[in-house]
Design a protein that fits this description.
single chain; alpha/beta; Rossmann fold; 6-stranded mixed β-sheet; 5-stranded parallel β-sheet; 18 helices; 14 strands; binds pyridoxal-5'-phosphate
Length: about 425
């Protein structure tokens, strides 16, 4: 697999380099040179999840890693289901929260851990990543206890849910967590600065596990295929998928799946009040506002990292950006949407409810809607219980961590302080 840096097309890397490096020079994202297209989608969809996902990954990765090894790695990473659940007659949800940290990030985090282990061998690696909530937990659990790997996770202090925090800040061992006085964009900026620091990068063997890492995106492509495989054949040509979006990794993966031949009529990019993309699609102006805190905190991102990949893909495929549907959902409407789902007998959480609201609003007669359920409602227990006025049971993954002490360090949003911390980390 060959990939190029979107900021400097002359920088070209293979899959192993892209997985190890995360980002290219000048913080440029890597993008695949060849975009595979499957000619016989029906046969592909007829396979089981792990076999099909291995085939999809092999098509992207090529002969750089043998098909057998890819199949073994995929099997180890994807050991939990992604069920499609009917919510209304013409609307279903793809539940992506049945992994160890109860969020869609488990797919990307676990596949990345497998691929990094495959391409790094014995070389020591320090994973430095920023999280708006769920990436941290998925990455921490995927790499916990792995030999030659240290993980450092930055998150905005007080801006993620208490249970989200417990899930990854109580592990210890090779997992180090830092609560930054700032928002997610500030955390992301610190990570980017670290990747521009050549000495630091070399000294620590830095790698980012954000959704910017290509192995995570490839993992996410697979569950879009899984969703369509579970839906009746009759809706395949009329499928509209609504994606709750923050950093736009999930939507990028969905569009890559469509580019590979998955029948999706259109996508809806659903954001909260941090609506840089929906505004851009209307007026053509990229004008990020200051990030505001919302109920769907994992999507509190006003400068979405993956957007350049979407622009590139649209250009490469000859698509038009105007065909991408998008919208913003306020906190008030998010609550209304959660209550509407509850009345249908489906307990949701703010992120999925945002996607459901826009889907409901935009779905045309004859179309079938699918929204991504990106996190288990219990991850947002406090807000979900307050909004729905009912108690949620804690799944065992959360219950075992809920009363453990937090092991995080507090830090100002200051690159010098973070750099000193990183350099002093023991192996
Ligand atoms: C629960 C949840 N939903 C949606 C998103 C948005 O996904 P993306 O950043 O890929 O747009 C996130 C991202 O962290 C998330 O944690």
């Amino acid at each position: 697999m060959k990939l190029y840096n979107l900021k400097d097309h002359s920088e070209q890397v293979n899959f192993a380099q892209a997985v190890r490096q995360g980002l290219g020079k000048g913080q440029g994202l890597f993008f695949p040179q060849d975009l595979p297209e499957f000619s016989d989608i029906d046969s592909l969809l007829a396979l089981d999840f792990v076999t099909r996902s291995s085939k999809i990954l092999s098509a992207f990765i090529g002969d750089e890693i043998s098909a057998d090894v890819i199949a073994k790695r995929v099997k180890a990473a994807f050991e939990f289901p992604a069920p499609v659940v009917a919510v209304e007659k013409n609307i279903s949800t793809l539940e992506l929260f049945h992994g160890p940290t109860l969020a869609f990030k488990d797919f990307g985090g676990r596949l990345m851990a497998q691929m990094l282990a495959e391409v790094s061998g014995e070389q020591p690696v320090t994973i430095l990543t920023a999280t708006s909530g769920d990436t941290g937990a998925a990455v921490a659990h995927a790499f916990y206890g792995m030999k030659n790997v240290r993980v450092v996770i930055l998150y905005p202090r007080g801006k993620i849910s208490p249970l989200q925090e417990k899930l990854f800040c109580t592990l210890g061992g090779n997992i180090h967590t830092i609560a930054i006085d700032g928002d997610f964009d500030a955390c992301q900026a610190l990570v980017k600065q670290a990747f521009d620091d050549e000495e630091l990068k070399k000294e620590l063997g830095l790698n980012s596990a954000n959704s910017i890492n290509i192995s995570r995106l490839l993992a996410q492509i697979c569950y879009y295929f899984e969703a369509v495989a579970q839906l009746p054949k009759s809706v395949r040509e009329q499928l509209v998928i609504s994606v709750p979006s923050g950093n736009f990794g999930d939507l990028t993966a969905g569009l890559l799946a469509k580019a590979a031949g998955l029948p999706v009529k259109r996508f809806i990019a659903a954001t909260n009040a941090n609506d840089t993309v929906p505004r851009y699609l209307v007026n053509g102006k990229w004008e990020p506002n200051a990030t505001v805190a919302t109920l769907s905190n994992a999507m509190d991102v006003s400068q979405p990292n993956n957007w350049p990949r979407i622009e590139e893909l649209v250009k490469r495929k000859g698509w038009a950006l105007k065909d991408l549907d998008a919208g913003m959902v306020s906190d008030e409407t998010t609550k209304v949407s959660m209550k509407a789902l509850d009345a249908l007998g489906y307990t949701s959480e703010p992120h999925g409810a945002i996607a459901y609201h826009l889907l409901r609003e935009r779905l045309q007669p004859g179309e079938h809607g699918l929204f991504l359920g990106t996190a288990h409602p219990a991850k947002f227990k406090e807000s979900v219980e307050a909004i729905l006025g009912k108690e949620l049971e804690l799944p065992k993954e959360l219950a075992v961590r809920a009363n453990l002490p937090l092991l995080s360090h507090n830090m100002a949003s200051d690159f010098g302080a973070m750099r000193a911390f990183l350099m002093a980390l023991p192996w």
